[in-house]
Amino acid sequence: MGNRLTQIATRTGDDGSTGLGDNSRVPKDHLRVQAMGDVDELNSQIGVLLCEPMPEALRELLVDVQHQLFNLGGELSMPGYTLLKPEALLQLDDALATHNATLPRLAEFILPAGTRAASLAHVCRTVARRAERAVVALGAAEALNASLRQYLNRLSDLLFVLARVLNRVDGGDDVYWKSERLTLAAAENGQD
Fold first, then answer.
1. Cβ(96)–Cβ(154) under 8 Å?
2. Predicted local distance difference test score (pLDDT) of residue 10
3. Is 4 within the bounds of a domain?
């Protein structure tokens, strides 16, 4: 692994390039740097979500996700290294199964709303989707470990589910989309 940072203002990026963990330099608008930045933003947004009250089990899960995202970002910053372990993806699959089992099936679309914690989880979900798109774009240009893309895809699903869980912490519910078409169809069928 590369050297740890001992100073932050190195001025080496003043020319529009940035250093990767393997000591190579790439332009700051490189697909790899975009993916690294989106993963970093996702990790930061999860940090904001963790400022909210939530059940301890969710907190522990999200803290571990932050560590896994650091591994994922490290793998992006060091071409050829593998840092994200298969167990990380299995943890997301297990969490999805556990939390999905506690939720009612969705009959309608829901809005990214509700409690502050749930709304922040939805923001994290959308950033996860953007990070996934950035990793997909990078993977089309360079060879990447498929688990990076899979982890972000599964994490965005989990964040959606956790938003629903967080809306129910104090007895709340999802905020359902009021579709004009669905309202008309229900009226025609005599449902209100």
1. yes
2. 60
3. no
∠ CA 27-35-73 to the nearest 5 degrees?
Answer: 105
Distance CA 132, CA 149 (A): 6
Host domain of residue 58:
24-87+102-186
* Predicted local confidence at residue 102, as pLDDT: 95
What CATH number should be reported for the domain holding residue 125?
1.20.1200.10
Based on the structure, what is the number of domains in the chain? Answer: 1
How far is the CA of 139 from the CAs of 57, 149, 183, in angstroms? 33, 9, 42
Pairwise pLDDT comparison (94 vs 7), residue with the higher score: 94
Evaluate whether residue 10 is within a structural domain: no
Chain segment 10-66, per-residue pLDDT in tens:
665 565 666 666 777 765 677 988 999 999 999 999 999 999 999 999 999 999 999
Cα gap 133→34, rounded to integer Å: 10
Is the alpha carbon torsion for 117, 121, 167, 65 positive or negative?
A: negative
pLDDT tens by residue, 118-169: 999 999 999 999 999 999 999 999 999 999 999 999 999 999 999 999 999 9
* Nearest alpha carbon to residue 2 among 77, 87, 112: 77
Domain assignment present for residue 191? The answer is no
Model-level pTM?
A: 0.85
